[in-house]
Amino acid sequence: MVKKLGKKARLLIVMISILSLMACGSLNKIQAQQIEEKLSEMYGGEKFEVLALGNRFGTRTNDYVKANVKAVDSGVVFSAKMDTKGKIIADNYAGVLVSKQLEDMLNSNLESEGITAKSLMIAFSTIDTGEIEVGISLDDYIAKHKPEFFGGYIVVKESPNNTGVALTNAFQRTFNDIQNIDLRANIWVIPEESYDEVIEDFSRLPEVSNSWFEDKNTLSNFKFSVKKDSVNLSEHELDQLLQGGE
Length: 246
Known about the structure:
It contains six helices and nine strands. It has helices at 2-42, 93-112, 138-145, 164-177, 192-202, 235-242; strands spanning 48-54, 64-71, 77-83, 88-91, 117-124, 149-157, 182-190, 220-227, 230-231.
């Protein structure tokens, strides 16, 4: 009898677990839809897609749900927070739209030098210059908000075309185009066969850190920066790093 009750109890636990997962999935779908609808209302009918949810409601300290959101038309990925009343209490959509202009410029300059790469950049400033207008141009953003530097991550595809001269030229051209604002990047070189897979995941993130790359197949990692009349690494050093050396 005890053995039979044990089997029944285990079956009941499994059933409860399955029902809990189903309920959680339904709740996540509802929350994602709410976020998409609220953002659409805020931004003139634009369409948004929630890619991932975190920081769920239901604990003593979590009074909001955080989402990674993709803007369907522009393709940018940003973060948004919705409170328990269904109100968007924070999002960085406007800032990410500005960053995308820099990323596109930097990616294009790298490509023109024979380097295949994707960047994830952000502006840094210690001065609060007010809210960023949605759709502001990069030049106008720099003039109004005066960032101290732009920094972020660049994922580079392994290639014999990756040279110190090419990387320096691309950075220098971008530096000039952004009105001589310091440009800093944490660069990860990815083997050719792994690049597309890494980029697929990388492109779905609103932000990233070094720890994200720990389980990825990488060749090298280094920091590179361009300031007025100076770079932190020589072209010879960059040649070695870009080819997987230290």
